[in-house]
Amino acid sequence: MTEFFYNVILFFIYSVMGYLIEIISVSITEKKLTLSRGYLIGPYLPIFGCGGLGGALFLSKYKNDIVNLFVLSVAYSCTLEYITSLVLEKIFKLRWWDYSKRKMNLNGRISLETGVAFGIFGIIIVCFIQPFLVYLLSFLTKKQIIVIGIILFIILLSDFIISTYTISKLKINTKKYTSKDSTAIVRKEVIAQLQKYSLFYRRLFYAFPNFLNYKNYIKVEDFIINKKKKKRLWNRKK
Q1: What does the pLDDT look like over 100-146, one tens digit per residue?
Q2: Rounded-to-integer distance, Cα 109 and Cα 152, Å
Q3: Integer Cα distance of 111 and 166 in angstroms
Q4: Less crowded by CB within 10 Å, the N or C end of the chain?
C-alpha cells in the first residue's frame, strides 16, 4: 500500500513537471504565454506522469549506460505517446495533438523531434531527477506518504472524471456529415454543444484551440469571439 501511494506522489510530481515543460515550450513556440495545456482542469499532464514514472522504474538499470538509456527512453516515450494519441482519438473522436507539419513524423502522432527531446529528458530523469525525488521523499514517514498519496489520488481521479464527462458532452458525431465541405455545419454543431456545456469550455478549448474531429477541422476561437461580441451587444442594450 505504501509503495502504491509512493508512486502516486511521484506520478503527480512528474505530471506537474510535464505541465511546466509543456507551457514553457508552447509559449516559446507561439511567442505568447500559454498556460492551458491538457484537458484536465489542474496544472498537470498525466502522460508525462506515466512517462516520467515509467522511465524511472523500468529504465533505472541503464543509468550507467547513457546510449542505451537514450535509445530506450526514445522508444518508450514514442510508444506511449502514439498509443495515448490513438486511444484518446478512439474514445473522444478527437485528435489531441498533431505533428504532421514536423519532419519525420508517424501519422502525426509522434515525431523524431519530440522523440529526441523525450530521450534527453529520460536521461535527466533517471540520472538526476528520480534520485533527487527519492532523497526528498525519504524524509517522509510511511503514514505521511499514504496520506499525501491518498489526497493526490483523489484530486487526480476527481479531475479525470469531471473533465472526461465534460469533454464527452462536447463530442460531435461527424459520421452523418458525408459531404466534402461540411466544416461549417460541424462548426455550428460544436457551438451549439458549447452553449449547453459552458462550465469548462474555456479551460478545455484554450488548451486545444484548434482540434481535429475526424477529418473536419474546427476552429473554436470563432465561438469565443462570437460570444464576446454578443456580450458587448448585451451591455450596449443595457
Answers
A1: 888 889 988 899 999 999 999 999 999 999 999 999 999 999 999 99
A2: 29
A3: 30
A4: C
